Amino acid sequence: MSQFYHVATQRSTSVTKALTGNFTDPNDLNLLIIKNSCLELYDVTIEGLKLIHDVPLNASVLTALFFRRKFCKRDALFILTHKADIAIIECNRKNDSIEFATVMSASIADNAARMLDQGFDALVDPAATYIVIRMYYGMLKLIPIANLSEPRDPLNRVDQQAVPISVRIEETQIVDMVFLYGYATPTFALIYEDDMVASIKMYDIFGKDPTLRSVPVNVDSIETSSKILIPVPAPYSGFILVGDSIICYHTRETFHISQYIPQAQNSRIVCYAKVDSRRYLLGDIAGRLYMVHLLPQDEKTIRPIPSTSRDMTHATPRIGSIRIELLGETAIPESIVYLDNGVVFIGSYLGDSQLIRLNPEIDPKTNSYITILEEFTNIGPIVDMVFFENDGQSQLITCSGCYKEGSLRIIRNGIGIQERATIDKENLKGVWCFPLESDTYDDSIIVSLIGRSQLLRLIGDDLGQLKLEGFSLGERTLHCDVVHPKGHKQNPRPLLLQATTYGLRLIGIQGLMGRGCLAKWRSPTDRSVSSLASRGDCVVVASGSDLFALRITGTPEAPEFTQIGNTVLPHEVACVDLTPFDRSVAAKAAIYSAAFQSPVSGIRSSTKGNNSEEEAMDSSSSGDPLDDLEPEYAAVGMWMGYGVALLTLPSLEVVCSEPLPTMVPTSGIAILPRSITIAQFEGLAYLFTVTGDGSLYYYNLDCSTGWCGHIVSSMLAL
């Protein structure tokens, strides 16, 4: 009998491979990030990376590559898993729908061969004729792909001619291998080690029954530290050998050209990315990023090379020298991908991955050409961890990362938020959205900054500046909402409420756009507005310890603020809420809760009774939306731990008040309520408040007795 059960609560965050290509559409530039057994597909847009699809697999991906099949306009994806399974996948995208079609799938498992411990690789020749897989000692797997049929629909399966072919190779300790450009047959070069000595060799694939044939290479010896081969495409061709301290460029026609890497101390180069045929990015284990420039010879010094046996000649471009620049420091890269317009993705296995921009000029403050645009959290690799509880919240403290990327991470089980797009705004204090012209959806945004406000409107996929007559841009906005005068609830709400520290304003929108500010209100005490909440035609404003209840009256064309209540609280108000709830349902739920729940835990019993109260409560949970309810209570939170209070509307009479802890016991930090709200779950009414230290406090509300029930504290984990 099984004694344990486990489930993954966190997907892998370490990047093992990153690729770029035209996968979803010929006009789309995509970034594919592989994180162990998860594939994340992004669109590369002007605004940044946009996640469009993620696919969990039932196997770990060892390596992958994009390639363009014959007669296809989009790239196909090849993946190799740790189970020795392979697949070629293409993407079908229609609007927002994305489907994957398997062109070919097979197993290359070989029980008679010994699998490599590390260094798995797959490469495709420039003409997309073969895929060569390095997975076993002394053996390569060849996958013919030239005759793969083009899938007419997503159900089209594997071409029976695409059968993996096993080919023996003498070199067992292969370090790296790449296909080369400029050869009539598929030709690849490889670095191998023999008795700790690095050497290079070249093979081509020929014949109907593919076999390997040795190709002469005009390289006598290479640096012992050479670990990476970089193929150089036409018109220059050849390859680059990368060592720890030196790189060399080789072609068939010329002698090699070498250049030392400018570094204070030797550090192993771990990966590269192609920018174009003459520029390449190199990343080392210390996180330093280099740019390699292949500089062509002066055209006047290039000797013409006969193209045929006849007298017709042409000048072939050649590389004359190499320049290497240190660009700056990034996270330790596992995979580097050049996207476009100087933007580079640094995929890291040992630290946080980064999206960076390469600047044309060096920054004198950082002495770097690099600007970090975005970072992607990575909690792996985890060397050690400890589990503990803090205020009832289970947490993990992990020793994450490696080398300079080492860090301590606090991990909590909570809700994850994924960033889709960003707009850089300094000193941002708040943001609201509202329908400027539409009565069905929001199309404009209000951004509150220190000492000013900004209006933005969504135009297509871009945000543009907006001018709205009557809206105060020279003040910081505290609150915004779309409201209506009393008695005009069913009409489209054509009034925008803007609250600043100086007071309240009603601005015409939709059908009243262009009318400007239609009504104003200032505190009778001449004190600044500190916080407020609004709902429909009701507004509750806090000005220090003074609390005002206002009603929007009149007509949409001529609205007015009418004071309907006022009270003075013993302490200043920090936050206000007017969320309505159904009192009758809450009363029935309270009776049911008293009969079937623990009075302390507040957790609903699993035993259900067949009574009318439960049926009424369950049926009401899917009843009227909040917009059909009028607020009957206002909830306020007060500064410096003086607690929360529930007040009736419109008189603002205090129904109940409950204290909060004045400070955090462990740190001595004063507790300040930041936000408060009323919510109804399964009929029961709750009062929630969040404090500045990240604690969530909530109370059970019993409106029939005017009592706030047992306080429960919980630590938020976002």
UniProtKB/TrEMBL annotation:
Q: Where is this region: Disordered?
A: 601-626
**One Pfam family in the UniProt entry:** Beta-prop_RSE1_2nd
Q: Which residue ranges does the record assign to the RSE1/DDB1/CPSF1 first beta-propeller domain?
A: 14-376
Residues annotated as domain RSE1/DDB1/CPSF1 second beta-propeller: 417-706
Compositional bias per record (Polar residues), positions renumbered to this chain: 601-610
Q: Name one GO biological process term.
A: protein ubiquitination
Q: List the InterPro entries hit by this protein, alphabetically.
A: Beta-prop_RSE1/DDB1/CPSF1_1st, Beta-prop_RSE1/DDB1/CPSF1_2nd, RSE1/DDB1/CFT1, WD40/YVTN_repeat-like_dom_sf
By its UniProt entry, which PANTHER family does this protein fall under? Answer: DNA REPAIR/RNA PROCESSING CPSF FAMILY (PTHR10644)
Q: What is this protein called?
A: DNA damage-binding protein 1
